[in-house]
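Quick check before the chapter quiz. The format below is the same one you will see on the exam, so make sure you can read both the input and the output lines.
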Amino acid sequence: MKNAVRYYSRSGNTKTAAEAIARAIGTDAVSVDSASASLQEPVDVLFIGGALYAYGIDKHLKAYLGSLKKDQVKKAVVFSTSWISKHAIDLIKDELNRKGIPVEKETLYFRGKPGEKQLQDAANVARRLMKTDGQEGRF
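Here is the expected output.
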């Protein structure tokens, strides 16, 4: 199963969550503003995260989402950190839906900086979402 973790973070909170998710599923977390963020080959699962900034998602994340193609991502899982609200999750999902990319119903949300228990919970959820009926790679 091929998977990827992409995120955008200003404060480091979303980066912390992305790194925990990436470790759990055996890949690297890459910021969407990095030269290596583009998907070089299709992925089965893309974990994609960001936060709410002035009631919207950052322009870097929005541009990255806009660059994705339906045939690159079999399924996306959305995560977010924010002190204000979970609205970034809806905004990211909306962008993915516009591209025709299927989005997992379950999301990961962290209010502020995720603590160790939250990071462990995120890792467990990420691993679980990579499995269905005990079989890796099936949804």
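If your answer matched, good. The two ends are 12 Å apart (CA to CA).
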